[in-house]
Amino acid sequence: MGKGYLTRASALALASLVFLVGCEGANEASEGTASEESPSPSHVADEPRHSASNIYRNPMKDAFFGDLHIHTSWSLDAFAFQVRVGPEDAYRYVLGGAIDHVSGEQIQMQGPPLDFIALTEHANYMGFRARLRIHRVPSARSH
Q1: Residues 140, 87: contact at Cβ < 8 Å?
Q2: Domain range annotation of the chain
Q3: Which of 42, 43, 68, 114 is most buried when burial is the number of CB atoms within 10 A of its CB?
């Protein structure tokens, strides 16, 4: 092992130690409650005050299952790969409904519905090709 490796390892160990020491006591500070006499901004005056003792904690530590990266025909890359389902179809699919697959077959999730999904459409040209297809607007190549 070279001298540079030991220097990087030492720096990493020191940074980890500083981080851990800096985090020590953070829980104690967050568990204290705010004084009832302390002034609060008007936009939160009607909201109930929360302390560490009255925050709901889930003793079962439930696991939730979902998909955090789904594209529909609204994304240009998915549309280019023949995906023709929209957001409504994606929601129907994760709830157990059947949708059209690019293979031409109907597909349906096996098992229970997902707890959550995130439709992560690309902003560039979002829905552009699908709108052209629906409204039958001639493309630049047809001229």
Answers
A1: no
A2: 66-142
A3: 114
Would you list the DSSP string of the chain?
A: --HHHHHHHHHHHHHHHHHHHHHTTHHHHHHSPPPTTS---GGGTTSPP--TTTS---TT-----EEEEE--TTSHHHHHTT----HHHHHHHHTT-EEE-TTSSEEE--SSPPSEEEE---STTTTHHHHHHHHTPPPGGG-
User: Please, which residues have CB within 8 angstroms of residue 34's CB and are 6 or more apart in sequence?
Assistant: 49, 51
- pLDDT digits over 92-108, tens only? 999 999 999 999 999 99
pTM score, two decimals?
A: 0.49
* Residue 131 in this model has a pLDDT that exceeds 70: yes
72: nearest Cα among 108, 35, 122: 122
